[in-house]
Amino acid sequence: MSAEFADPDIELMLRFQKGDERCFEELVKKHTRGVLNLVYRYLGDASRAEDVSQDIFVKVYRARMKYEPKAKFSTWLYRIAVNHCLNEIRSRKSQPSLGTPINDMIEEPEGENPDARLTRTELQGAVKAAIDALPENQRMAVILSRYEDMSYDEIAETMGMSLEAVKSVLFRAKENLKLALAKYAGGSS
Fold first, then answer.
1. pTM for the whole thing?
2. How many whole angstroms separate alpha carbon 18 and alpha carbon 34?
3. Torsion angle, alpha carbons of 9, 13, 18, 19, to 10
C-alpha cells in the first residue's frame, strides 16, 4: 500500500478504479458487517437489511469512477448507505427502526432479579421507541454517533451537512430523547 493515504481503503478503491476487482472484493469483505449493522439499525428488518446492503455495494461498484479520495473511504460508503436507506424508507413509506441490537447496548447484570430485568426490558423498549420517533435526520445522526461511533466531522460528511448543523441536529435529538425518556430519569434531567 502507498504511504500517500492514511486510510488503506482509499488505496484499495483507487486500485479498483484502475480495474483490480480483487480490491473491491476486499472492501466488501471489510465493510459488509458495518453497512449491514447500519442498515439494520435504520430499517429494523434483518432480511430487508441484507438486500439493501447488497444494493449499496452494487451502487458503490457502479459509482467507483466518481470516487475521489477527499475523506475516508468509509465516510463515502456510509454516505451512500445513508442516502439509500432514506430512499428506501421514502419509497416504502415505512417507519425505520433500530431493531433489536439496542438490547445488546445495555448489559444484563448477573443475578438480576425479575423486577430489575423487567425494568431494564421496559427501558430498552422505551429507548428504541424514542429513537424511532425522532425525525429522520435526528435519528440518522444519533445512529451514526452512538452506534457507528462516528465523529461529528464524519457525520457531517456522511449526511452532507455542516459541522454546526450536525451539532444542532444532535442537540435537538438529545433534547427530544430527554423529553421522551423523562419518566425513566428518576426525576432528574
1. 0.70
2. 25
3. 100
